[in-house]
């Protein structure tokens, strides 16, 4: 017999059970996030002061308090900026090729495959590659730029993948509408497809930046260490915030450990600010549209 | 002010699959020509071959000739993009650009093809929206997003967008199938006004619509499953709906099959 049935007690129970499991796993997933933030803020605030933001570690002895991460903040900003300048254009263009032009050709399948492989490269390997090729074979010096090269190897596949997904979401109707108006393909891509998927692409790029901003291993092998300010990313060792944290945390004194926490806090803040800026740009663009 | 289209021996393929076969017809200027026939018989494919939109699909190709006022659109040295500026298209589902305002949607065809002064585009926007019978409804909110309009208004916006580039021919692929009867009526009225300026070709599943608006009607059908679509009969609309020459046409329009 079929017909309208009441919800049985068993189903109700199952519903409760699954529902609480879902809530529970959400809580479990959020605990580490909150714990990390809380730890970093609590321990980092002690040394997160003006001196920390404006001074380097030059002439700071092993037992001295004070000193700061200015050189590391500067280095991280320059390295991430350079890495973005290299990998965002290449990544965007690759994704555009894959979605708009490749469509199942042999070349695009190959590119897709290699992008997948690149996504899986451990960051140390990227650093080793730049060390071996750029520094040892080509004889270039340790520099912020070498670090940026290693970071861009890690960043590129993320940018390609996320942009590709966003471009695929743009309905084909819109492309056809544009073609039917007699708009050439490249203009359709620039004026219709990219603006439509812009906010998604920006989010993807920001995630990629956030990912590489925290990389330590590739910098260790390419940027090297320094306690001094080096504004020029193209010559000489630089510092990066992850390196700074790594370096300070391995020193035995309390003041160094405090500096490491403050460095971690600075890194998180930089990534957060970048994210916020990207959101604002996205919002500003969409409100400019509506006027 | 509307140009004649002559098609001869046209075949269209999707990869290896032949979708339509040996289509020949003349589409008269400043008139409405309707294509009717069961789903999958190649009406839309044929429509898309008329402004070289068919080849946008990967693997699709076309054989045969389409002459617009005597010039072959498939001649090797013809730029497909320029064909589409001469022959505009309105799609089944309204597809205004979501990132653009109503104003920007209407001038999209102009803007995306080059620079135009503000006063110039202002004129085009008013002209086209009036042409699409939408001006009075949207004149106070031209800067609002086009996606915020109702379905029928969106479709008229798409028509305004298509006529803003001043094409000779307007192709409409089931323009009313996603719309309610009132919006459909608005668009049918619009078509009868527009035919003074354009050559209009419309694909429709709605037989009454074909009978109401069109001057000439072509009936498409498949010889069998997996076979390419062919043209069964083409004649004045009044003839097709009152006294068709082919039995298959009569069966279709009286609802005995398809």
Describe the structure.
The complex is a heterodimer of chains A (291) and B (258). Chain A is mainly alpha-helical and 291 residues long. Chain A has a single domain (71-290), classed as MetI-like fold (Orthogonal Bundle), CATH 1.10.3720.10. Chain A has helices spanning 9-44, 50-54, 70-102, 106-119, 123-137, 144-169, 172-180, 185-213, 217-222, 241-249, 254-290. In chain A, helix 1 (9-44) crosses helix 11 (254-290), helix 5 packs across helix 6 and helix 8 (185-213) runs antiparallel to helix 11 (254-290). The longest helix of chain A is centred in the C-terminal third of the chain and has 37 residues, at 254-290. The radius of gyration of chain A is 24 Å and the shape is globular. Chain A starts with 8 loop residues before the first helix and ends with a helix. In chain B, helix 5 (118-131) packs across helix 7 and helix 7 runs parallel beside helix 8 (181-194). The longest helix of chain B is centred in the middle third of the chain and has 14 residues, at 118-131. Helices cover 35% and strands 26% of the residues of chain B. Chain B has a six-stranded mixed beta sheet, sandwiched between helices. A four-stranded antiparallel beta sheet of chain B has the order 2-1-4-5, with helices on one face. Chain B is α/β, with parallel strands linked by helices and 258 residues long. Chain B has eleven helices and ten strands. Chain B has a domain at 5-95 and 167-253: 3-Layer(aba) Sandwich (Rossmann fold). In chain B, a hairpin with a 2-residue loop joins strand 1 and strand 2 (17-27). At the A-B interface, helix 7 and helix 8 of A face helix 2, helix 4 and helix 7 of B.
């Amino acid at each position: 017999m079929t017909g309208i049935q009441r919800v049985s007690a068993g189903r109700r129970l199952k519903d409760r059970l699954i529902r609480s499991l879902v809530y529970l796993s959400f809580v479990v997933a959020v605990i580490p996030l909150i714990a990390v933030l809380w730890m970093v803020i609590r321990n980092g605030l002690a040394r997160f002061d003006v001196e920390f933001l404006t001074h380097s570690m030059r002439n700071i002895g092993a037992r001295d308090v004070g000193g700061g991460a200015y050189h590391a903040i500067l280095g991280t900003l320059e390295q991430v900026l350079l890495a973005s300048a290299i990998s965002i254009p290449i990544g965007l263009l690759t994704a555009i090729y894959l979605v708009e032009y490749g469509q199942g050709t042999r070349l695009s399948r190959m590119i897709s495959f290699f992008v997948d492989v690149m996504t899986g490269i451990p960051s140390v390997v990227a650093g080793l590659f730049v060390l071996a090729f750029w520094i040892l074979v080509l004889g270039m010096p340790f520099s912020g730029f070498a670090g940026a090269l290693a970071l861009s190897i890690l960043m590129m596949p993320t940018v390609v993948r996320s942009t590709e997904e966003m471009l695929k979401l743009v309905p084909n109707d819109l492309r056809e509408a544009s073609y039917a108006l007699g708009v050439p393909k490249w203009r359709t891509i620039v004026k219709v497809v990219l603006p439509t998927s812009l906010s998604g692409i920006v989010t993807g790029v920001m995630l990629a930046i956030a990912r590489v901003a925290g990389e330590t291993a590739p910098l260790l092998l390419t940027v090297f260490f320094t306690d001094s300010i080096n504004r020029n990313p193209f010559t000489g060792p630089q510092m990066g915030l992850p390196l700074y944290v790594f370096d300070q945390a391995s020193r035995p004194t309390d003041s160094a450990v405090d500096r490491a926490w403050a460095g971690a806090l600075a890194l998180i803040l930089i990534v957060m600010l970048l994210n916020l800026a990207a959101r604002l740009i996205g919002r500003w663009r969409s409100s400019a549209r509506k006027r | 002010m509307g140009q004649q289209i002559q098609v001869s021996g046209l075949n269209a393929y999707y990869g290896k699959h032949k979708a339509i076969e040996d289509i020949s017809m003349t589409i008269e200027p400043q008139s409405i020509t309707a294509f009717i026939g069961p789903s999958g018989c190649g009406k839309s494919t044929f429509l898309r071959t008329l402004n070289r939109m068919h080849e946008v699909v990967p693997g699709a190709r076309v054989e045969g000739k389409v002459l617009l006022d005597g010039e072959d659109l498939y001649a090797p040295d013809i730029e497909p993009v320029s064909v589409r500026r001469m022959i505009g298209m309105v799609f089944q589902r309204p597809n205004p650009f979501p990132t653009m305002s109503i104003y920007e949607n209407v001038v999209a065809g102009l803007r995306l093809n080059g620079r135009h002064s503000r006063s110039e585009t202002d004129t085009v926007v008013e002209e086209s929206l009036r042409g699409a019978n939408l001006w009075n409804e949207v004149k106070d909110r031209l800067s609002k997003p086009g996606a915020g309009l109702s379905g029928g208004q969106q479709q008229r916006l798409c028509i305004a967008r298509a006529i803003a580039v001043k094409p000779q021919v307007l192709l409409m692929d089931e323009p009313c199938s996603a719309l309610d009867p009132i919006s459909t009526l608005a668009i049918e009225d619009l078509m009868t006004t527009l035919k003074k300026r354009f050559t209009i070709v419309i694909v429709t599943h709605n037989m009454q619509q074909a009978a109401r608006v069109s001057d000439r009607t072509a009936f498409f059908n498949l010889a069998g499953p997996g076979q390419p679509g062919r043209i069964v009969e083409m004649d004045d609309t009044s003839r097709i709906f009152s006294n068709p020459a082919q039995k298959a046409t009569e069966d279709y329009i009286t609802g005995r099959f398809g």
